[in-house]
Design a protein that fits this description.
- The structure is a single chain.
- The protein is mainly beta and 103 residues long.
- The chain has one domain: Sortase, Chain: A, CATH 2.40.260.
- Helices cover 7% and strands 19% of the residues.
- It is globular, with a radius of gyration of 14 Å.
Length: 103
């Protein structure tokens, strides 16, 4: 298990074609239980993912819920993910520089 120092990331993910804007938080750990807790705050930037604009993969986690699911916390944010295609515009809005280190 990789554990990272917690960092506040007041950032957001916007997908205009889905009318979606959601907060993005840095995952506090790669542990499944902790990631599930982090998902209560919005989409989760998976620990160890590269920052936008850098070489490598960005992994952002989020819940999806079935149709008519109540909008509780952030359970629904990726419910329409199947509506995306290769040309869908995604905007990752990073409002502060972010550094995270492993230990």
């Amino acid at each position: 298990m990789i554990v990272y120092t917690p960092v506040t990331l007041p950032s957001s993910l916007s997908i205009p074609s889905l009318s979606l804007t959601t907060p993005v938080v840095i995952g506090r750990s790669t542990d499944n239980n902790i990631l599930h807790q982090d998902l209560d705050s919005g989409a989760v930037f998976y620990p160890g993912s590269v920052m936008p604009g850098k070489a490598g993969q960005i992994i952002i986690l989020g819940h999806s819920a079935p149709p008519n699911w109540p909008r509780i916390k952030h359970d629904y944010i990726f419910s329409q993910i199947e509506d995306l295609n290769r040309v869908t515009k995604l905007f990752y809005i990073l409002t502060t520089p972010n550094i995270f280190t492993g230990f």
